[in-house]
User: Fold these one by one.
Assistant:
Number 1:
Amino acid sequence: MGIGWNYAGFVLLVVFLLDAGDFCDGGVTSSFVRTKNISADMPLDSDVFQVPPGYNAPQQVHITQGDYEGNAVLVSWTTPDEPGSSTVLYWAENSKTKSHAKGIVLTYKYFNYTSGYIHHCTIKNLTFDTKYYYEVGIGNSTRQFWFVTPPRAGPDVPYTFGLIGDLGQTYHSNRTLTHYELSPIKGQTVLYVGDLSYADDYPFHDNVRWDTWGRFTERSAAYQPWIWTAGNHEIDFAPDLGESKPFKPYTNRYHVPFLASASTSPLWYSIKRASAYIIVMSSYSAYDKYTPQYKWLANELLKVNRTETPWLIVLIHCPIYNSYIHHYMEGETMRVMYEAWFVEYKIDVVFAGHVHAYERSERISNIAYDIVNGNCTPIPNESAPVYITIGDGGNQEGLATGMTEPQPSYSAYREASFGHGILDIKNRTHAYFGWNRNQDAYAVEADSVWLQNRYWTSSEKSSIASS
Ligand SMILES: *[C@@H]1O[C@H](CO)[C@@H](O)[C@H](O)[C@H]1NC(C)=O
Ligand SMILES: *[C@@H]1O[C@H](CO)[C@@H](O)[C@H](O)[C@H]1NC(C)=O
Ligand SMILES: *[C@@H]1O[C@H](CO)[C@@H](O)[C@H](O)[C@H]1NC(C)=O
Ligand SMILES: *[C@@H]1O[C@H](CO)[C@@H](O)[C@H](O)[C@H]1NC(C)=O
Ligand SMILES: *[C@@H]1O[C@H](CO)[C@@H](O)[C@H](O)[C@H]1NC(C)=O
Ligand SMILES: *[C@@H]1O[C@H](CO)[C@@H](O)[C@H](O)[C@H]1NC(C)=O
Ligand SMILES: *[C@@H]1O[C@H](CO)[C@@H](O)[C@H](O)[C@H]1NC(C)=O
Ligand SMILES: *[C@@H]1O[C@H](CO)[C@@H](O)[C@H](O)[C@H]1NC(C)=O
């Protein structure tokens, strides 16, 4: 009897251990449950959407990097009533003289919406690591802002990026942005992983919600560059409304320096910034072999000098690794196309949005898999990037809460909450990544990890020659 009981007990124990093993293999699925889970957009008369006072006053002011090297800034803004002036007046903090740069102005129509006068002006040849003031508008309605140029690219230049995605314009969005602004580790540039305004969720893609989003984000984006990635909510393809040119509002409103990296489209491009090399890709443009994006990326990866910019970062909207039910496997074709390059070129981190939640992967690769060998389990590989999904800005579509179970072994941490990330690069070997859940205090990090640079610390042999 005793033996029988023991045997049954042993079997139960083994079953229990195997079961627990499955869960231990995967990382942490957070048990945090959010309160006040309402994702309503802030009403049109909210403080964050206020129109600046004065006739034809510039609004929706935002800046992004204006060239490849980092010493140009692209300033964009809208004047509502008339074109006014596309000139930016700017001066270094301690300079007596002011300079002018002349930009362009454009308008676009979308269904029955006509945009304001959208200005884009690139200020070039700035001094690295310098504070500049700038002024837009004319007459009684000028507005002044400032920015700080990054240090010249170099291997041990510390620099701090914020990570925000799928922001939208709800109360949660406002909270995420506020937490980013008040973070004790100060972000110097935002890496934005796509899905901006969610205007396309409104009837007739009401582009007024693009304007409100521009006014909402101005308080950050006018003072530090936001590096833009296009998401599915930027496509705005609506033939039923007579709108069959994809990305029309986005590409009119958010200009990027794609020509500087020899790209043929604003939807994919790259920049150098301090010690980082940032490659922006488009999930919603052709990327198969022989396409413009493919050819561009093949050449781009060869250009990167890991001594000058040790940190190689990819921004993309649709995640390649995602263990949530929402958008599960949507990134698979992109993974099949590009994962081998990501591992070969030792990309440090791939940031994505799309899934309205947070997830961080282990360093894993699935490049051994093909349809014949059936080896479809991702395996640890220290040359592989960490994949971070940060589509948790807090838009009106709400959280992605459904997860595949058990948590796959490649998933290190996942949580259905809203928040933002900080990537704090210390030197060529070390960077710190922290994720703030926007229901915690500003300084609390619900998840964090030290990242060791793949090029400088991984012992895996690389097929790329060192520079
Ligand atoms: C655009 O058309 C829709 C539907 O007819 C209407 O509700 C809306 O007020 C129109 N907007 C403008 C700016 O005319
Ligand atoms: C860039 O600025 C420097 C001084 O800061 C000046 O000497 C140089 O001529 C400028 N170059 C261009 C192309 O404007
Ligand atoms: C602009 O300022 C001038 C001088 O202060 C004033 O006379 C004029 O009425 C103002 N114009 C507007 C449109 O406010
Ligand atoms: C948005 O956040 C800012 C900063 O915390 C706050 O001043 C403002 O009142 C908030 N607005 C709304 C509509 O929540
Ligand atoms: C890479 O960058 C370093 C540091 O800027 C420089 O010394 C080196 O010449 C560059 N290598 C190549 C191949 O351009
Ligand atoms: C990691 O990937 C690289 C590049 O494909 C490969 O050479 C290496 O053998 C892999 N390492 C492991 C542990 O599988
Ligand atoms: C949050 O609300 C969404 C709908 O807005 C719902 O699908 C989801 O299950 C809710 N999540 C939690 C954790 O309550
Ligand atoms: C790089 O930064 C890390 C983390 O701050 C530190 O431990 C390490 O000593 C630094 N390396 C060098 C060479 O300074």
Note: The radius of gyration is 23 Å.
Number 2:
Amino acid sequence: MMKNITVIGSGTMGNGIAHTFAQYGFEVSLVDINADALNKAVQTITSNLDRQVKKGTIDEQAKAATLVRIKTYTDLKQGAANAHLVVEAATENPEIKLNLFRQLSEICTDEVILASNTSSISITQIAAVTKKPGNVIGMHFMNPVPVMKLVEVIRGYATTDETTQTVMALAKTLGKDPVEVNDYPGFVANRILMPMINEAIYTLYEGVAGVEEIDTVMKLGMAHPMGPLQLADFIGLDVCLAILKVLYNGFGNQKYAPCPLLVNMVTAGHNGVKTCSGFYKYSPGSKELVVADKFR
Ligand SMILES: NC(=O)c1ccc[n+]([C@@H]2O[C@H](COP(=O)([O-])OP(=O)(O)OC[C@H]3O[C@@H](n4cnc5c(N)ncnc54)[C@H](O)[C@@H]3O)[C@@H](O)[C@H]2O)c1
């Protein structure tokens, strides 16, 4: 019986994954190397639960019960010792992830399923450093996790049918709609999304249209809820660049080459919402969308 879930990394995705499992009755151990990140995650989960109470989707009792089910740890061994399933959502860096999975393979028993929320790193490569690669799988949640229905379930080369079926069923118990895909660069979501974002940046770079014009065409013409340039700001321009590099290196195809404007913006530290500057300017607390000075 799956009851104890360990979530590693308590940033944007980790806190949402912990929130969702706890809301659906699982006992959650949330692990981060940074104690401040853990405190911030609990604050974020609390305010997101408050929003759900206000909307009437959960009551005060469910909010309190959800919070009680989440314990925090800075020590991986303590946090993962009793896990039935581990969902790793640490920083998107192959070295960090391979190191974590090597350790998890030693800490956890052979029955434990080890999942990664990676956006682009090969599940096959991650599995290869563990003792039971058949138990390793991708569980790619979307941001914001409590709201978004999709979980992209990624089968590595060695992932067993049993592991896949268990994770697909588990995602459904969280009210999600899981989709099974195979492990190739970018999986499905980012293989399709990132070239579209990259093309939108090329369209701006070549002077075909301005930031607002490009986003408006895609919002009003294609019924996208948000334009591709604004979406890139929300995902993080550094994250978009990292994923495009995985696609470019993985397929060896020029069509995935990151636009030089994206490279320049990341080099200059303009990474989107998290740095308050990308294609748009962001100020904490303001919802107004203003095109960054550079593009006006
Ligand atoms: N942000 C998104 O929209 C999004 C969407 C889907 C998937 N993802 C993936 O989810 C993962 C996490 O992304 P994020 O945006 O939440 O990142 P983030 O930077 O917000 O959080 C990462 C957290 O991992 C922690 N961490 C780093 N090394 C660690 C270690 N060794 N042990 C424990 N904790 C460690 C950091 O302290 C940080 O709190 C990445 O693999 C990313 O590709 C992100």
Note: The chain has twelve helices and ten strands.
